[in-house]
Prior knowledge:
The protein contains eleven helices and nine strands. It has one domain: 2-enoyl-CoA Hydratase, Chain A, domain 1 (Alpha-Beta Complex). The protein is of the alpha/beta class. Helix 1 (26-41) packs parallel to helix 3 (73-91) and helix 3 (73-91) packs antiparallel against helix 10.
Amino acid sequence: MAIRYEVREGIAEVVLDAPPVNALTVAGWFELADRLREASRDRQVRVVVLRAEGRGFNAGVDIKEMSNAEGFDALVGANKGCYDAFAAVYDCEVPVIAAVHGFCVGGGIGLVGNADIVVASHDAFFGLPEVDRGALGAATHLARLVPQHRMRQMVYTSENAPAAELHAYGSIHKLVDRDKLVETAFEVARTIAAKSPTVIRAAKASLNGIDPVDVKRSYRYEQGFTFELNLTGVSDELRDAFTEGREADTSK
Length: 252
């Protein structure tokens, strides 16, 4: 099961559970979007906790699914699935708290960058390895977590940023030991769930309404470059090198 979903005492828990690294297939991204929209529509839900089981929060798209597919169906599906899931976090009518441990890379950045509140464990790290995989995307969301020039440097180099760095920026609300992460996320969630649900839903809508960047349009713009890169054939070489565990030809 890629996504688990449960509602308790006004708190919806959405759990990524897709071993070994929570890299989601096309179907997994759409399933995640469906669960988030389900939480949004449920008037009993006052807040969402988005977390993961296993070694890390999320490793992005399932590269092997894309490499093994013929044509561009998997690429288009992944683009649409990620767009749908990221938008479902952003558009959720109640606050979404992301609880992050281990790796949060690629598509994980899109989820966490669109969340309302982030809590993380000390072992968490964040990054976009897209350039090394022949793709682009989620810089829109990384720019919500780190300053502009740091974001650019991370995109160009595929360098990761530790949770402590994001905590210093104020992007991470609470930084805790791994065994305290879920408990901490739910403590924050219970504080929000105790407020008037009518006011909280209005607050979420108002905050989205004053956002300086249209995150959905911005991300869709990035995706166009990913498709162009795939047409050149460069992306195939970089993805294949990654899945085959070899050095990629970066001459082009």
